[in-house]
Write a structure and sequence with these properties.
With about 280 residues, this protein is mainly beta. It has a single domain, classed as Sandwich (Jelly Rolls), CATH 2.60.120. The strands form three sheets. Strands 1, 5, 10, 11, 12, 16, 17, 19 and 20 form a nine-stranded antiparallel sheet that branches. The chain has a nine-stranded mixed sheet with strand order 2-9-8-7-6-13-4-18-3, with helices on one face.
Length: about 280
Amino acid sequence: MTRRWFIPLTTIALAFGSLMAAGSASAAVTTTHPGVTHARPGGTVHAFVPGGLMKRPAGAAAARAHGVRNQAQSTNWSGYAVTGSAGAFTSVSSSWTVPAASCSGSSAQYAAFWVGLDGYNSSSVEQTGTDSDCNGSSPDYYGWYEMYPAYPVYFSNPVVPGDSITASVTFSGTQTYTLVLTDSTQGWTQTITQDEAGLSRSSAEVITEAPSSSSGVLPLADFGTVSYSASGANGSSLGGQTPTSIVMINGSGQDKDSTSAIDGSGGFSNIWLRST
């Protein structure tokens, strides 16, 4: 079932979208910040979401699972996740350099890079990150946050390839989530605070994602290589928490990108292989 719809760039629709984003779940409160928009930069795609739940392969693709210990396959995620019982995770963070999107064709393609709590085995994701997309032959770079299944929200601050990004999601008190995205190269930080009760917090992850729309998983933009550093959860390196390595595959079971080993400091890389 589609959870979202495209929000036209009109004053009325923007106001409606803002209200819906703030009131999509009980007790949810979004702080108003400058440089925030509910309209996706670049091209328009119906029900576009840069992040979301981990989608697991089915049918023939699932049958091709490698069966490697601490490895999982997904049709939209790659990277690393740690999992536990409800309430196990209160923070996640990582840093990366914005990769350049190679946009040589006329089709639209997308690649998102983010940190988040939940989504691996739950119905919500609290996440923030950046995109390197292709709007046809034109690259499109931007930052965003999402309290899935609420609408994604985009930052109008400048993002260009080579920028140094740091992102974190932290839970505190009984229902407060603080999402921070910093572009130290451009000199800006967005800090978002939302109050929302009842979320699982049963996983923490650092993810490269093929975003989705109402039609399903979208083509993965050629991002080359993205390297994450200092990836951690609950104040400790992911590399020391026996994380699950996630490999993104297509419907035929072919890898869409590769996920390297993670080192003790929480560093690893994803390398693009194919768009679909």
